[in-house]
Amino acid sequence: SPKRHCHEAVVSTQSTGESAAGTEPDYDLQFDEETELAELRKFREATEDEAFPDELDTPLDTPARVRFQKYRGLKSFRTTPWDPKENLPLDYARISQLENFNTVRKFIVKSHVKKERPVRKGAYVSLFIKNVPISIIESQSAAITVFGLLPYEQKMSVQHSVVQRHGQCDLVVKGKEKMLAQVGFRRYLVKPIYSQHTKSNKHKLERFMPKKGSFVASYYAPITLSPAPVILFRVEEDGSATLLSTGSTLSCNPDRVICKRVVLSGHPLKIHKRTATVRYLFHSREDIAYFRPVEVRTKHGRRGHIKEALGTHGHCKIGFDGPLHQNDTVIMCLYKRVFPKWDFQYF
């Protein structure tokens, strides 16, 4: 029958395709098991972070007061002050900071860019360069790009760029991965970190490159006055580059505070009006005493404070500002400031 012949044709086509794929030469030689496992691990972490943002289980083998000793609690992430000059890394001794980036940029544009130049646009000029090594001439093509630098653009600083993921890019990109950045006329390798693009004085870290919306990529690089286009590529092992995101420069401000958030969660064991006995938030009496001043809240909007520890296995009594539901989850948010990783290299 016609249906039977059609079915046999489909089966024979699939068999032929499978046999051709199975006999493809050097397929397994191109397979890297370590890279595949690393990508799988990163994909699982990104999926878990998307389902449960910033949530982390309290460790059993390490005291929480040791594991999270660099973190602090904030009553309000938006309004609580954070000194941008405290506990700076050693890399900050290698960079420069403009006192007011926007004011300096406007002054430079007004005094250097808009004034008359001795050479008009479209004119041909002859450049004589002395002491050029022969190796550079042999390695480069016939076309050489020449550009000028504005004041302060030869100094290193913390560059912030507002970028957006490319529509055809679905790769899982973790923070501090090596990227190829094309910023204006310069191209270099950096390891950026990603944060939310908000108008607050503190900005929450994004562990992975967001899939939607605009975000800020921060990295150590030479000062580039805005506006300037920014393109981020991922360099593969074979030398090819994959387009990840595009955008423009935002500022060069080392005082931009980027905070990494950790959410510890617990579950109510007993509830009596506005007081609840919570377990799994901590696992020792000493940890409860250490984090007692930090405010806790629930996913349904209740806020409270730890009253006392019960026993020696991490149970604690917490008082809230209202009645608690049995299916609610008690969480504690801790923050620490993070910085980019110094790995600058011209490409």
Main sheet specs: 6 strands, antiparallel, barrel
The end-to-end distance, rounded to whole angstroms, is: 64 Å
The fraction of residues assigned to DSSP E strands is 25-35%
Uncertain segments: 1-21
Spatial shape: elongated
Number of strands: 15
Q: Give me the Rg, rounded.
A: 28 Å
Strand order of the largest sheet: 9-10-13-12-11-14
Structural class: alpha+beta
Specify the helix fraction band.
10-25%
**H and E order:** HHHHHEEEEEEEEEEHEEEEE
Note the total helix count: 6
Mean pLDDT: 86
Write the layout of secondary structure elements.
Blueprint (H helix, E strand, L loop, with lengths): L1 H21 L10 H19 L12 H4 L33 H13 L20 H6 L16 E10 L13 E5 L2 E5 L2 E4 L5 E5 L7 E9 L6 E7 L5 E12 L4 E16 L2 E5 L5 H6 L5 E3 L4 E8 L4 E6 L9 E8 L7 E2 L1
Parallel strand pairs: 5-9
Antiparallel strand pairs: 1-6, 1-8, 2-3, 2-7, 3-15, 4-5, 4-6, 7-8, 9-10, 9-14, 10-13, 11-12, 11-14, 12-13
In short:
By secondary structure, this protein is of the alpha+beta class. The chain is built from six helices and 15 strands.
Describe the structure.
With 347 residues, the protein is α+β, with helices and mostly antiparallel strands. The protein is 20% helix and 30% strand. It has helices at 2-22, 33-51, 64-67, 101-113, 134-139, 285-290, and strands spanning 156-165, 179-183, 186-190, 193-196, 202-206, 214-222, 229-235, 241-252, 257-272, 275-279, 296-298, 303-310, 315-320, 330-337, 345-346. Strands 9-10-13-12-11-14 form a 6-stranded antiparallel barrel.
